[in-house]
Structures are given as C-alpha cells and as structure tokens.
Fold this protein.
Amino acid sequence: MRTNVASTSLAAFHSLQSHHQLQPQEQKIMDAIRHHGSATREELADRTRLRLSAVCGRVKSLVNSGALIERGTKTNPMTGKQNKLVALPVGQLGLFS
C-alpha cells in the first residue's frame, strides 16, 4: 500500500525508531508532565499549546513505548466525562531528561 507521506515525516519516523530520541512535540508533552504531574490529554493540549489531535497521537506513541502510563481518571467538569490521566511510570522521573 502506497500513501502520500512527506519525506520529512518519514525521516522523522525513522530517526525516532533508530535513535530512540523524542521528537519536539513529544518532548513538550514529557516536559509538561514532569513539571505539572499527571494530566489528561486536554490539559496537556492546553499546557503545551498543541492541538488536541497532535497530543493524542503523541501520547499514544509515548504510552506504547513505555515512556508514559495511563493511571486513573479525572472528571471533566464541563461534560461530566471521565478522561484518562497519563503520567510518568513510577521511578522514571529522570529517564528522558
């Protein structure tokens, strides 16, 4: 299957896999969690000034890699919906410094 993916996107993807380095948006998310503690994806979008869709994709990648974990929920006061909290794994505070 062939898709129209920008070469810069492919290069970023391959560099992440080969060097295990965080991309700039992932680093912003990790910094926000390190500074403020666990947060919902919506809170991370506000704190990092990234679009919610960008945060959701980056958080999914960070959770899949083990850099973040989903731990607990928080009720959104506007909607009443339970949102998952993401946090650093226990004992990993300095892993991505």
Q: What stands out?
A: Residues 52-65 form the longest helix (14 residues).
